[in-house]
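Our preliminary data section would be incomplete without showing what the modeling component actually yields. Below, a chain of 294 amino acids is followed by its predicted structure, encoded as tokens that our downstream tools consume directly.
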Amino acid sequence: MDEKLAPYSLLLHLLILLGGACSGNGSVEMDGQTLSHSKAHDHTAHADMRIEQVHSHSSPHMHHMDSAVIVFFFIEDLKQGNTIPIYFPRRDPNSSPHLLSKEEADSIPFSSQEIDYLLHFYSFPQGSPQATAMEDTLRECEAKPIKGETKLCATSLESMLDFTRTILGSETETNVLSTTHLAHSNILLQKYEVMGIEEIQAPKQVSCHTMPYPYAVFYCHYQESKSRVFKVSLTGENGDKVDAVAVCHMDTSHWGRNHVSFKVLGIEPGSSPVCHFFPADNFVYVPSTTSPQA
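Predicted structure:
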């Protein structure tokens, strides 16, 4: 491993130990852990509506809105003093899947064509929630990337670092940005007041998201279209304090019309930038030479 990568590799390892797995909507349980399974307006009124829709299930855009998808917001919402509804999951690090070494990961097939073998290997019955989660993860990992996207489902630390070096440059020193909970209640979905905003000027960034699987799998991807990265200080109405990472995708015209963010925000592809917060076990790689902007 390159010496330049060693410092943030240690940080990444700590993040992984704290990580869980989530993707999409709904929920399944795997190895004892509950996993989320499964992206001109009056923004303040719409934000309030997002929480009401979750509780009442009366959304005009979604018949049943899972609270876990309330992470999307408009870039105009990102103003000091503004209030945004956000769902931040809580996951038990003791029951979270851990990232395997490359040697371990390479010894186990990671392919939908081997699903029968994998279900037998992990003793998951066909059609069980665990089996469904595995099948969905493999299907998403094998799906063709959207236009302008480069992606990898990393099954080991080494594969993740190799992918990051490929995108950001083999000689580029890298920082890892993650969401940190400074104080939190048991309320997962609540309104947060924006206390401070810091934009990270990153010409390129790699985002990594946890996926439901028996061991830790991260969907890491880079999109050629412009994105903006922010660190946001938040205070929740229930006393929670969060230093959160958020990414805003400035061009969504190439996204699928059924992307969950459009349903949550009530917009069409390409009509508005789409921003989203990262849970604590997801993270963003950026070049360490980038400078924060107030």
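The chain is about 25% helix and 30% strand. The radius of gyration is 19 Å. Preliminary results of this kind motivate Aim 1 of the renewal.
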